[in-house]
Predict the structure.
Amino acid sequence: MSRIGKKPIEIPSGVDVKVEGNNITVKGPKGELNKSLNKDMKIEINDGVLTIERPNDSKEIKAIHGLTRTLIYNMIIGVTEGYSKQLEIIGTGYRAAKKGKVLSLNLGFSHPLDLEDPEGIEVEVPSANSIIIKGIDKQLVGSYAAKIRSYREPEPYKGKGVKYIDEHVRRKVGKTGK
């Protein structure tokens, strides 16, 4: 039994949820999100409470039940509060700069990396060593942060690279001198 799937979602004031077939649209103060969900799930809205019911107890449907509830909940949180990821750049000469809608990263390559912000994502660079990625779509924010991190992942010997602010890098001991 999916405990997550059974939990009802309370729709906050100022948020409008519309269900048309297997498409769901969530409008809120920060924007609007659309998503296509599994057609087997039954989504009902009664008195500001959204519930999701599954048609049968097959293993596949049970797995999708909790996923569907979580996706809808993330959409509601996204349009009310939004999501953000914070990255930290560690290393001599490694830095970030923002030029309009382009994020410029110097990560030890022969040329700077220029990344254009995706639609629906806002990138801030408060200092040369930190990047804040904000948006209403949790998946888009996370994948863009992972893309930036993938250019220079933190290495275990000196800890140089791009890491999440709350990430702990396991350090290794280097070679010992003679």
